Amino acid sequence: MSHADLDRRTVLMGSLGLGAAFALPDAAFAEEPWPKGRQIKLVVPFPPGGATDVVGRIVADRLGQIWGQTIVVENRPGAGGNIGAEAVVKAEPNGDTLLIGSVGMATNPFLYPKLNYDPVGDFAPVSLLAMVPNLLVVSNQVPVKSVKELIDYARQNPGKLNYGSSGVGTSIHLSGELFQRMTGTKMVHVPYRGSAQATQDLIGGRIDLMFDNISQALPHAQAGSTRALAITTAKRSPVTPDYETVAETVPGFDVSSWFAFFVHRKTPPQIVAKLAADVQAAVADQGARDRLIATGAIPVGSTPDELAAFLASETRTWGALIREGGIKAE
């Protein structure tokens, strides 16, 4: 800056007098970096208590500590996650409203004849938070104690067993669809608005089995309220090494739930970049990692580009299964 410029600024500030003194705090506030002074909200498109809610709150808690402010968590369940996603699309594209998305971001375009949002066109990917194995659990009233026994029983009683899920097109539902296809069995799907509600009916014996997120299912299995048979990932989980995998009986079976943060596509790139970096730091924090692992989740923390590529892969995989199976949202 030249001396002439400095002199002009000095004269200008002097002419503004006391009014400039009052204008300075407003100008300084306007230049404060996001998210300072903002009310940040995380939309969870499923009811409280399920894996989406649990993972979202763990990461939001640590993220809030990094920012020195509380993140408001708002549960907006319904329509397989569509209601929550629509709420974020309608919010101001300023980074203040986050969505924790899951496999529905990949499956819902194939399940519903019309969506009021585009999972790719309307959202900017932020970071993949965690992968969560599903756990195959049965009611204590079902007379099976292994995957093989379940397959044998289902084959001998086609259409008699029913399995619950947190909604059509969720990984919990699609695990059951894939299991039936790969084992030649026939079961009845019973969708709920969330896995917590389905779990209560499983404990009560009103449904027979679930391929539930391990974070939701494990405590009930350990307490003896349900019976765990196997996890759905290709390899055994370090959290539950004694549980066999479905793949040990059904080769090639491999399913994981996943959870990621998204924001409105029109969110300024610099805010998306900061948010992505801070979320990665939150997931990398040892305290947050320990809490996630304790639920059975496998912490990830990715870049936006990595999440975009992952979503594209999931869309191809599950889109093919949904089309071939003629699966539609009820």
From TrEMBL:
Database matches in SUPFAM superfamilies: Periplasmic binding protein-like II (SSF53850)
Signal peptide: none
Domain of life of the organism encoding this protein: Bacteria
Homology family: Belongs to the UPF0065 (bug) family.
Descriptive protein name: Tripartite tricarboxylate transporter substrate binding protein
Organism this protein belongs to: Alsobacter sp. KACC 23698
